[in-house]
Amino acid sequence: MKRSAIIAVGIGLVLAATLIATNDLSAILGAIGKAGWGIAVVVLLHVPQTVASAIGWGVLLKRREAFGWLYALRWVRESVNALLPVAQLGGDVVRARLLAQRGPTLADAMAATMVDLSVEGATQAVFTILCVALLVAGPHGGAELPLAAGVTAITVLLAVALVAAQRFGLLALIERLVTRWTRGRDLVGLNVAVLALYRQPRRLAAAGFWHLASWLLGGIETYAALHVLGVHASFREAMIVEGLGQAVRSVGFLVPGALGVQEGGYLVICGMFGIPPQKALALSLIRRIRELALGLPGLALWHRLEARHGAAAREGTVS
Fold it and tell me: Which pLDDT value is given to residue 313?
């Protein structure tokens, strides 16, 4: 798996570098330079999205957790998925394990996290469909519709597959295998806890509301990013770029950080609205800057939480 991750990262980096190098690197860097401190605004506009996602996750937990703690774990999750070769999924394992260190059983923490991941995927599918509806309702050339339909279909299929897998036995299998292979009982009750959450429609709806709000807030971030780059796009266009861009990232979830996939997606999607390739790639790089600006402190926070837990465990052993 390590070798596969390294190969995926290498391919993604080569693809991203090729796209950037063949589309006037000086113009791309010039656009980013002109954005200046506007990039800081774009970075800060991502914080409300994390807030909304953290609230949505908290709704699914068995017991009430301090919001600051949930926000910190969501921040760590996004940092791990964005910057480490974990196929955009390892961060969810990390946040569940960190949560379990504070009281809930690992089975309960993992159950809420897995259902939260499904709700997030389902609301992304809804968001993508809304963005495609905006595309169809407004002026368009028609050539972009196959791409929009394709990424929408894949996003919906991924969401349905994740929910179906959880509802119909995948987690029960994982629970049995972990118990057998490790002789540990940390995940005993995982499948039961997941199914119990799926029988609580009000909590699922509340979580869905907050996750959909998070996706919509992403449109504001994209709108701001386009404007600091000097692209006077409408809010409708920014929302479509955000929705289809996130869908493309989901399709490339096996590539760490969607390297190359995101850049290629922005080239095509922004081209629908006559946005030059240099500005499209500059938009992608601003998103990468945001991931670094928030992700590196997030990884440092993860290290600190792990170190603190390790120290507490050693003290408990000594005492």
Answer: 67
pLDDT band at 177 (very low <50, low <70, confident <90, very high): low
| Measured distance between the N- and C-terminal CA atoms of the chain, rounded to whole angstroms | 39
69: pLDDT strictly greater than 60:
yes
Q: Give which of 288, 260, 284, 266 is closest to 14, Cα–Cα.
A: 260
- What integer pLDDT is reported at residue 319 of this predicted model? 46
- DSSP per residue over 235-272, as a string? HHHHHHHHHHHHHHHHHTTTSGGGTTHHHHHHHHHHHT
Residue showing tokens 């000086």: 26
For residues 107 and 99, what is the distance between their CA atoms, to the nearest angstrom? 11
Widest CA span of the chain, in angstroms? 71
- Determine the Cα–Cα distance for residues 299 and 229; give it in Å rounded to an integer: 28
- Report d(CA 292, CA 299) in Å as an integer: 10
Instruction: Determine the average pLDDT of the residues in 182-197.
Output: 76
**Tens-digit pLDDT profile for residues 98-127:** 998 887 788 889 889 999 999 999 999 999
Sign of CA dihedral 70, 72, 75, 76: negative
Residues 6+ apart with CB under 8 A from 184: 178
Neighbours of 64 (CB within 10 A): 9
Which residues, in sequence order, are CB contacts of 236 under 8 Å at separation 6+? 134, 138
